[in-house]
Amino acid sequence: MTTTTQLIDTPATIPGFTNYQQLGYIEAYDAVTNGAYAFVAYKETDSTGDWRVRIVGYQTPGAVFEPDSVRSNARAASAQGKTWFPWGWAFDPSERDTRNIQFRVHVSNGDPHEIEMFVQLRTHDGSAEAPKSVRFPWPDEHSADA
Question: Average pLDDT, stretch 58-81?
Answer without folding.
Answer: 96
